[in-house]
Amino acid sequence: MPKKEAKSDVRDAENTVRDLKNWIFTFAKEYNLPEEAIKMLHTKVDEAAVKIGAIACKPAPIIKEAENAVRDLKNWIFTFAKEYDLPEEAIKMLHTKVDEVAVKVGRVICK
To answer: Is 20 strand, coil or helix?
Structure first.
């Protein structure tokens, strides 16, 4: 039964990633990002999404890779922001959205 509870938490994280991906289109329009930037951002988010989707509790908990992928995404945002000359407010918005994913991943508990 605990696996079902953990899976529910993973589903919450996956849903938050999906929300992030949908939000990226609005973000990209607001900051007039070129198509290549949008693709790059989606690719990086997808890398984290794959790790989040692979979270499993048995035989041994596999959560660290997802946590690392989200952390790497957050760190990468600085490079991305510099490359596309994003204003500070845009960087904060991106970080806030990625933090939402991080919180959901952090709530996954394997018992």
So the answer is: helix
Cβ-contact 24, 42 below 8 angstroms: yes
> Alpha helices, DSSP H only, in 1-111?
2-30, 35-53, 64-83, 88-106
Residue boundaries of the structural domains of the chain: 2-106
What b/e string do you get for 3-18 counting C-beta neighbours within 10 Å, with b at 16 or more? eeebeebbebbbebbe
Sequence length of the chain is 111
Torsion of CA 11, 12, 18, 22, to 10 degrees: 160
| Closest of 72, 73, 71, 66 to residue 50, by C-alpha | 66
42 by Cβ neighbours in 10 Å (0-12 / 13-18 / 19+) ranks as middle
pLDDT, tens digit, 9 for 90 and up, residues 12-64? 888 999 999 999 999 999 999 999 999 999 999 999 999 988 887 777 667 88
Write the Ramachandran bin of 32: left for phi over 0, alpha for psi from -120 to 50, otherwise beta: left
Threshold 0.90, pTM exceeds: no
